[in-house]
Amino acid sequence: MQRFIVESYNVVMDSRKNPLRHLDLASQHYVMQVLAWMWSMVFSLAFLSVFHFHYVWGAHVLIFGGICFTVGVFRRAEKKQLQVNKAVQQQYSRASACAWQLDREA
């Protein structure tokens, strides 16, 4: 049963396994966002929270916005670190690299 649940989740949420895998990354993201909003509205209406939908919608905006912002910050930091690493590697040759070999020095 657990395997079935995991596979079902992956078919929908894993971009390498769902039917959207043939689209480019931006289109995958857009379609998944539209589906997420649609399902949030469906569940909101299903639980008869029509009068409180703006709270549900606001909560989704905050959560998804926070997640997207965090992912953006992490990716930007990774790119910046790669640029710094490349600059350092170009600045110094391999001969000047310090290798601390504890087995030989002990």
Profile the largest sheet. Answer: none
Q: Round the Cα radius of gyration to an integer and report it.
A: 23 Å
Total count of helical runs of at least 4 residues = 4
**Strand-and-helix sequence, N→C?**
HHHH
Low-confidence stretches: none
Total number of domains: 2
Task: Name the structural class.
Answer: mainly alpha
Q: What's the β-strand tally? A: 0
Distance between the termini: 54 Å
How confident overall, as mean pLDDT? Answer: 77
Strand-residue proportion: under 5%
How much helicity do the residues have? over 70%
What is the global morphology?
elongated
Keywords: Membrane, Transmembrane, Transmembrane helix
Transmembrane segments: 30-51, 57-74
Would you write up a description of this structure?
The structure is a single chain. The chain is mostly helical and 106 residues long. The chain folds into two domains: 1-48, no CATH class; 51-92. The chain is 73% helix and 0% strand. The chain is built from four helices and no strands. It has helices spanning 2-13, 25-46, 53-91, 102-105. It is elongated, with a radius of gyration of 23 Å. It starts with a helix and ends with a helix.
Quick overview of this protein structure:
The chain has 106 residues and is mainly α. 73% of the residues lie in helices and 0% in strands.
